Predict the 3D structure of the following.
Amino acid sequence: MEKITALIIEDSRLARLELKNMLEQHPEIEIIGEADNAADGEKLIVSLAPELLFLDIHMPGKNGFELLESLDNIPEVIFTTAYDEYAIKSFEYNALDYLLKPLKADRLAKAIEKVRQHLGTDEEQDGKEREIKEGILDASKKVFVKDGEKCWLVRLGDIRLFEVCGNYSRVFFDNHKPLILRSLNQLEERLDENTFFRANRQQIINLECIEKVDSWFNGRLKITLKGGTEVEISRRQAVRFKELLSL
């Protein structure tokens, strides 16, 4: 059975122990690390690249939501918390599930089944990767964009920026900024990485539309696109950006 790698980020030692004991009934989940605060959790996520997080919300320092906002690449997330008032907010972060403490075995089993269905088997993943690779759209491709009653047929190379807007993404081209019902992750899978670059968690930029690059705070970069739009490239992505565009 293929393992699903996971981290537990939870400030209560007893809660971590309880969850690990319950996960013994689910051998497909492999716990590869744990942390009792967001700062240590972020380091583990970056170094170990887990497929799944069991994430508490209330923790010392950053809370669970703030941790996710600090990441460029977010694993699948199952929130585990004693507070039910954040359930709606959790799905703004594309969480797969929201489990209330004390955890119940049947609810945990249903959440793990969602993870299995979402990640799929190796064969299914290979198929998805092939479909994605075959479906990559280059800059010359024209795409249909519809926002309400307005429609456009736009060359991808003329789109300078994609930006998260709730459950939608905003598309910037010419003087237009329509919304489309696609997540940034879904768009990133279809876009040519030689033209479009994930600047941060919220934005994808068209490399051909860059007019100016400035050094920014804490190793970040500030990009000015055609039309004057400014975009901040996160510290981790700034390293990749420099490598990508260096001679």
About this structure: The chain has two domains: 4-131, 142-245. The two ends are 44 Å apart (CA to CA). The helical segments are 13-23, 38-48, 64-69, 87-90, 105-119, 122-134, 184-190, 235-245.
